[in-house]
Amino acid sequence: CGTNYYHDGSDCVACPTGSTRMPETANQCLCPENHHRSVDGDVYSCAACAQGSTRLLGDTVPGGDATTCTSSVSPPPPPPSAQALEKVAEETRDSILDDIAERLKAKVKLLADAAIAGVKVQRLSAKLTA
């Protein structure tokens, strides 16, 4: 058979869409990298992988079941736990408190603790001198 044709047992037939004949065989064609074997009834083809997915070279057509591509996108990391977020908030609070005058620290700490706990503060008053 000629280039990109395979022998189906009785005739030379064009390789399925998207494939090329394997040089070492007369009766199979090969899907390129990032393409998978697609089967629709008795019709075989090489279909491109969706964006963000891959498949190694090697699917042969015709013959065999349909194959799929593998997602190359990693899932997002899990969100931090409530305890981890609270620890970061407390560290930030302590860092801020280091720069505040002693006489205001108690009120600022109270307000920061309320924010960390998710409590809405209705009213806060302070007397400051410039």
Given helix and strand content, the structural type is: alpha+beta
Total helices: the number is: 2
Tell me roughly what share of residues is in helical segments. 10-25%
As a percent range, the share of strand residues is: 15-25%
Give the CA-CA distance, first to last residue. 95 Å
Major beta sheet summary? 3 strands, antiparallel
* DSSP strand tally: 9
Which spans have pLDDT < 50 for at least 5 consecutive residues? none
Overall average pLDDT: 83
* CA gyration radius, whole angstroms: 33 Å
Main β-sheet, spatial strand arrangement = 3-4-8
Shape: rod-shaped
Describe the structure.
It is rod-shaped and about 100 Å long. The mean pLDDT is 83. With 130 residues, the protein is of the alpha+beta class. The protein contains two helices and nine strands. Helix content is 25%, strand content 22%.
Would you summarize the structure shown here?
With 130 residues, this protein is α+β, with helices and mostly antiparallel strands. It is built from 2 helices and 9 strands, in the order βββββββββαα. Helix 1 packs antiparallel against helix 2.
Question: What is the topology?
Answer:
Blueprint: E1 5-7, E2 12-14, E3 20-21, E4 29-30, E5 35-40, E6 43-48, E7 53-54, E8 60-61, E9 70-71, H1 82-97, H2 102-117
Helix pairs in contact: 1-2
